[in-house]
Amino acid sequence: MKTRYAKRRKKLKIMVFIVLVSIGILFALFVKKNKSEHEGINMAQACKVIAYACGYKPSDGHGNYWYDEYIDYVREKQIFTDFKAKDAFTRKYAKELFSYCGVNFTEELYSYDTFSNEQFSQLIYELKDFFSSGDNLSWMEAAVVATPDMDSQLSGWSVCTDKGIYSFKGLKLSGKVDKNCVFLTCGSEILMFVKETGTEVIYKNVWIYKIENNKMYIDLYGIKRKFQVGNIENIGSALADVSLENKKIDAINLKKDTISGKVLSVSDEYIEITGYGKVFVDNNFVRYNLTDYSADRDVNNIVIGYDLQDFIVAGGKICGAFLSKGFSPGNIRVLLKTTGYADIFHNKVSVTSDNGYKVCFDEKEIHVDAGNISEFDISDSKFDNGRIEIKPDTADGKIKVTNISRSQGNPEYYGIIELSLWDEGIVIINETDIEQYLKTVVPSEMPVSFGVEALKVQAVCARSYAYKHLTNVGYALYGAHVDDSTQFQVYNNNLEFDASNQAILATKGEMLRYGDDVVQAYYYSTSCGSGTDVTLWGSSKESYPYYESRDIGSSERNINYMDEESFASFIKQKYDSDYDSTCNYYRWKMTVSDKDLSSSFDSKISDVGIIQNIYVRKRVSGGAAVSVVVEGDKNTVTLDSESLIRQAFGNAAVTLETNGGTVNTPYLPSTFCIFESQERDGEKYFVITGGGFGHGIGMSQNAVNAMTKRGMSYKDILEFFYPGTKVA
After folding, report:
1. Given this model, what pLDDT does residue 60 score?
2. What angle do CA 669, 675, 680 make, to 5 degrees?
3. Which end of the chain is more exposed for a tag (fewer CB within 10 A), N or C?
4. Nearest-CA neighbor of 321 among 335, 343, 303?
């Protein structure tokens, strides 16, 4: 009996021991987890913050760990001595950081040995004015909506917050979902978590799209989530503010007032809608796309000139929008500049028509007979309640704007002329069908003498370019997609012609596509026999694979155009196989004295004194110069953009020798050029030898002319200049 009791007691002890060990393990795990979430900041995290504060721009794929590039940067700057990534950020490193910034360390303020996240954040705040990019740091309070482990739409290090999508490389945020937190940010990067500020969260302007089986399905800024609810009325699809307390729905504020109409203009503060005027936009505006179930918060993504969405209004402001219609391009809105394309504002406007027309304002309409002129100035009372519209009586009628002069005279426009009054003057917008718009774009951008097949190429490019700008708005504030100058596409500078109209009709609706995307087809006048890619403008080749650097001719050369000696040899020769070889600007040369060039340069760019030397520091694929160093006897300047280089060395007073004779131009035709110096009669000269006219990205228009003469079709030509694309 005693033995049996002893065995039982021993067994009980073992069980108690196992339970205690289990509790100990669980407690240790809890402490470890709790510690990992609340322990002080380490050197890897600190280096990331400091690198951003110093203006460092991270690159993908650097090193084996997320923090390698930041650690390397800080070590290169010699900010800290003798540290490892996982080391705690201590007072020793705080002193070294203060020393690097040239500031005395305050022992009383920072008496602790290691720094918590909040303490480190305070330290950075004190020092931020001493960092080169410290002004880019900001503190943001936001609620975490979802992390990548919750939603497959969030790739890599992306987190959705109620303030937008951010990257959070190196941080642990899964435990912060549905909590209000303070973060230190730089642009779209969360640099560090600072502290929690509460578990009561209000998600504003979210879309409740279904209630089923005591579950509420909510679209939180593009993230689909479901919440358990009690027996609740089925409210259908609605915009709402949803309050959570400890991750559970606590209150719902529905927003059901809806307005709709054609969008006339968009700014960060308001959306102008036909019939409603300018309606202010809520700071937490969200647009939900019901066609692909995406969401965005940028009011500037709203397409002007179209009625595509219903707007939800609460408290007198537009809180959100539901986009339920697919975008089908029809009209384009063009801002008409003054004579000489000098300004977008007109002091007065005068219009007439060979047919009758109507002047519409404030729900009133005045009919004007054919040939009669109507004038409007900034004091006109017709502007008192909004815009003025001038509409021709017939669908094919045109409105002539007589206060504007173009190469054809006073231009006439299909569609509607719309006037809006601003402090600076009157803005004129022509809203017209895209196919009608092309009738004067195509002959303004390409000579009709090139023939119908070449004009088909231009028509497809111009239509694709126009389409891209319907959603990538240039003048959203004023209510226009593009203007009528070379900044976009030249419009109505020339009359329409039968050949160009034939090309537009033959390609009606056709655009250049790369996969499902329409290509914004860049083009330029003349190549030097070589073209470049978007690295000329600092963009990534991977983002625009259909722009390639290639030889523009019937044969290819095996030349490294980025090598200075190889490019110099190339640009001094002519190649009959190049499609542009007979064009005026295929090769050109400018010879200018050092004094004249210095005087011109100093007036445009910077006072470097008398220029002693010019050399190319960097070329991109195809040979275009993107960085040029100018050494003067007073100063040295580096020009780091294609447009600046063309501006700096152009000189309207100096003759430019071309294939077709001499010209004078205030800008260099291109940056496909070399710079050489020579002595002549005891005086120093600079010789700039180059080729081509324009940026060199995409299609050479003069090459198109030669290619059609060799029997190539417009589709073949487009696929040559934009490889991987299709006309569809």
Report:
1. 62
2. 115
3. N
4. 303
Q: How many CB atoms are located within 10 Å of the residue 488 CB?
A: 19
Find tokens 């779209």 and name the residue.
188
Q: What are phi and psi of 491, to 5 degrees?
A: -125, 130
Q: Break the chain into its structural domains and give their ranges.
A: 1-38, 43-198, 331-507, 522-697
Distance (Å, whole) CA 441 – CA 495 = 9
Spatial contact of 496 and 443, defined as CB atoms under 8 Å apart = yes
Rounded to two decimals, what is the model's pTM? Answer: 0.81
- According to the model, what pLDDT value does residue 606 have? 87
Instruction: Give the residue from 106, 97, 178, 92 showing the smallest Cα distance to 130.
Output: 97
> 587, 613, 580: which is closest to 701 by C-alpha?
580
d(CA 287, CA 308) in angstroms, rounded, equals: 11
Mean pLDDT per 10-residue section of the chain, whose length is 728 residues = 50 52 46 46 95 86 81 93 93 94 87 92 93 94 94 87 93 94 96 94 95 91 91 82 93 94 94 95 94 88 92 96 86 97 97 96 95 97 95 95 96 97 97 96 95 97 93 88 94 94 97 93 96 94 93 94 97 97 97 94 92 96 96 94 95 92 94 95 94 97 97 96 96
Nearest partner of 319 among 282, 350, 271, 294, judged by Cα: 282
Residue 27 pLDDT: 44
Q: How many residues does the chain have?
A: 728
pLDDT of res. 235 = 76
Q: Residue for token digits 């540290």? A: 83
Phi-psi region at 21: left, alpha or beta (left = phi > 0; alpha = psi -120 to 50)? alpha
Residue 430 CA to residue 412 CA, distance in Å, equals 10
The amino acid at 713? S
The CA distance from 270 to 262, in Å, is: 14
Helix (H, G, I), strand (E, B) or coil at 204: strand
Q: Are 612 and 679 in contact (CB under 8 A)?
A: no
Please report which residue ranges of 497-548 form alpha helices under DSSP H: 498-506
CA dihedral of 657, 659, 664, 668, whole degrees rounded to 10: -90
Both tokens of residue 42? 């380490």
Strand segments, DSSP code E, in 463-582 are: 482-483, 512-514, 517-518, 523-524
First to last CA, the chain: 95
Q: CA 165 to CA 492: how far, in whole Å?
A: 42
